[in-house]
Amino acid sequence: MGICHYTIAFFHPTCPLIAMQKLFAFVSTLFAAFIACGFVQPAALAQQYPSKPIRFVIPFGPGSASDALARIAGQELTANTGQPIIVMPKPGADGALSALEVKRANADGYTFLFGTNSPLAVVPNIRKEPPYDVMKDFTPVTYLGDNTFFVVVHPSVPAKSLAELIAHAKANPKMLNYAAGNTFALVGSALFAINNGITMQAVTFKSEPDALVDLLSGRIHLMFSTSTIAGPQVREGKLRVLATTLPERSPLMPDVPSFPESGQAKFPIGPWFALVGPAGLPRDVVTRMNKEMVATLAKPAVKEAMLRHGFMAKSSTPEALTAYMKDQLAIWKTALKSAGVEPQ
Questions:
Q1: What are the Cα distances from residue 334, in Å, to 42, 79, 331, 342?
Q2: Which residues make beta-bridge pairs with 89?
Q3: Residue 224: in which H helix or E strand, if any?
Q4: How many CB atoms lie under 10 A from the CB of residue 343?
Q5: Coil, helix or strand for 31?
Q6: CA–CA distance, 42 with 27 (Å, rounded to integer)
Q7: CB-CB neighbours of 93 under 10 Å
Q8: How many Cβ atoms sit within 10 Å of the Cβ of residue 218?
Q9: Which pTM value belongs to this model?
Q10: Helix pair angle (65-81, 227-235), 10° resolution
């Protein structure tokens, strides 16, 4: 029988090569027909992203502004992507522990740093041997926004304005101390003291919630605090607010004067948030996550929820965030030096 008939060649034992060739051609033709008819979409052939829970590692503990903001964004992202967003606090070492957690993670799009200026701009400038290179060890995704800080004091401090606080500090040298639950609070308080010729003692904490305990007890006299932490205490009369570090008044506390209104120069630094992943994050993952976060931050309900925590939501392209992070490294280097914070 010279040539096998194609209808039986698939199974004919005497011509296996021809059978395999014809089988492959038949299956290929059939598969192409399914795609052409819309039964199989090419994009569906690859695993869709995301296909499992995503971790947002945050640099401060539960109850912090980072925690609240990550959960607000995470809830919206969960609804949009169908995958849970797990908020994972990793406080300590000025946010370096959270950054290292993300640096060491697989670059697969399932671990991100919901980070602040602390791990992304401060840590590289206060360590003689930085634990990571911000511009090489992370993949920028999007800017997230700016946070609002207020100067709050314990009621035992006889000051109802920054001017009165400065006068009290000058009349009682080295008697006042301040809490630093993050690097903006630490550097901001130090710059405030230097700019006004006063001396105050710094007491550092792992996070704002930890610092708040000592501030409420009176062991700490004042703190540069987010409205997430200080707002409820101010409304209950447990703390007194003197000013916001913003260049203008905050809609959260419109009766509270800004730094310029209080006779203070505009701060060269500010607290900000950004979303970054490990180095080498695939471009399609960056594009998808950027798209989701931009849409999330643009929603009025999300903006309003974040504003209640003193956070002004803003987004950016990955490229714009890259340039911003580079600039912030230089700005914070100068600010830290001015505040007398030397690399350790």
A1: 52, 42, 5, 11
A2: 58
A3: strand 222-226
A4: 13
A5: helix
A6: 16
A7: 17
A8: 11
A9: 0.76
A10: 120
Nearest to 242 by CA among 164, 169, 190, 176: 164
d(CA 241, CA 262): 13
Q: Are 242 and 162 in contact (CB under 8 A)?
A: yes
Tens digits of pLDDT across the chain (344 residues): 444 443 334 334 444 444 444 444 443 444 444 444 444 443 433 358 999 999 999 998 898 889 999 999 999 999 999 999 999 999 988 899 999 999 999 999 999 999 999 999 999 999 999 999 999 999 999 999 998 899 999 999 999 999 999 999 999 988 999 999 888 898 999 999 999 999 999 999 988 889 999 999 999 999 999 888 888 999 999 999 999 998 889 888 999 999 999 999 888 888 899 999 999 999 999 999 999 999 999 999 999 999 988 899 999 999 999 999 999 999 999 999 888 888 88
Q: Up-side HSE of residue 19: CA atoms within 13 Å toward CB?
A: 9
